[in-house]
Input
Amino acid sequence: MSGLVGSTRHHSEEGMYGQIKLFSGTANPALAQEISDYLSVPLGGRDIIKFPNDNIFTRLHESVRGQDVFLIQPMCRPVNDHIMELLIMMDTLRRDSAGRITAVIPYYTYGRTDKKDQPRVPITARLLADMITVAGADRVLTIDLHAGQIQGFFTIPVDELTAFYLIRDYFRQKELPDMILVAPDVGASKKVRNLAQALNAPLAIIEKRRTGMDTQVLTVIGEVEGKNAIIYDDEIDTAKTLMDAVRVLKARGACDIYACATHPVFSDPALECIDASPLKEVVVTNTIPIPPEKMLPHITILSVGPLIGEVIRRIHLGLSVGELFEE
Output
């Protein structure tokens, strides 16, 4: 991925579906603009109107007949509005005879509802996959799904990207002494182990037990005393898991504590908890926008715009996406 950032492409490159057409919902316009700038492809004009009765209406300003359309829309707050925007926009594109529609969903919500882990509950991640397909998507591009098996919920191609390398490179440049990577629970241990190997650092795992809707931290597997700890996860939601990890790490003698994650969901009271905590730095990406009034001075945002832009280019031209992640 070393040659990716900073290398812009031009919309004169044509694939089998004509030219690239980029459209965006209202969920993350800044990220959509970054992708547009990387590709030197302007964002298509569209109207998205929410009527007084909460119905959503969309209208394109240009024809997409026979074109290769990429619709950028993470499923972030307000989640249900942005899901409906995505579905209605795809239906609009399909009815205008787009040659191919790729749903670019940097953050895929409902990822935790990926299985029936108790009686009489839904599998909402699968339901969303069905809705996206029926609405007209020919393929999906997303980043760091909460559960890898969600790819299998789709009957269309899914390109799951990862922010792993952005996070790895960021912490390589920091050159922290006495570094240790920490998995906030056993389920995250494989992913965190890979980052530990990439940074040539040891691994610690926080063991916890779930009882109903609550969790209880039991112990830390690994020696964290006197080390600078980096907690790694796919998302930070309410930050309860993160705060539990910070408390137990401090109790076990860790020095500076960092947190990193792909998706800054930051549901209340996450930012208040982070601000009051001893965390040295929180590193996230811009898959989900953080309002300026909620930004904290020790939050660092890494951009996934160039990564998504390059993958869009490769999909459009029929080139390998996997080559981007080969070392």
Residues 5-12 have pLDDT under 50 and may be disordered.
